[in-house]
Amino acid sequence: MPYNAIATWLYLIGTPERALKLRGRVERLAPPPFDPYFGVEAAQCPTTVLFGLAQSQRLYADPRFRPALDAWDTGEVVAADIRRLCLCIEKGQYDGPVYSPTGR
């Protein structure tokens, strides 16, 4: 299956409740303070808002999700994209599968 960042983000966001929660925060996701020894870092990942830090780190380690998360980190997917996806889900326009952090 070819990689599709939008499909992956729809799957991760998945529910109107998650979409509403994320849409309210996506514009304020900021990178950590600049560290001169580490350099510039990407803004906080939306999955941290949705699932917490530990689950977000597990998603980064999973090759099925890594390309979509990397797309956020590199700016290929931006806050405006995530906001549009959230609105789509909130309006009931997404009826695909939904990610479960518990694996069920």
Helix residue percentage: 40-55%
Q: If you compute it from the alpha carbons, what radius of gyration comes out, rounded to the nearest whole angstrom?
A: 14 Å
What oligomeric arrangement do these chains adopt? Answer: single chain
Helix segment tally: 6
Mean pLDDT: 89
List the helices and strands and how they pair.
Blueprint: H1 5-13, H2 16-23, H3 46-51, H4 53-61, H5 66-74, H6 79-90
Helix pairs in contact: 1-5, 1-6, 2-6
Task: Explain how this protein is built.
The protein is mainly alpha-helical and 104 residues long. The chain has one domain. Helices cover 51% and strands 0% of the residues. The chain contains 6 helices and no strands. The chain has helices at 5-13, 16-23, 46-51, 53-61, 66-74, 79-90. It is globular. The two termini are 22 Å apart. The model has no long low-confidence stretch (mean pLDDT 89).
Outline:
With 104 residues, the protein is mostly helical.
Short key terms for the protein model shown above:
mainly alpha
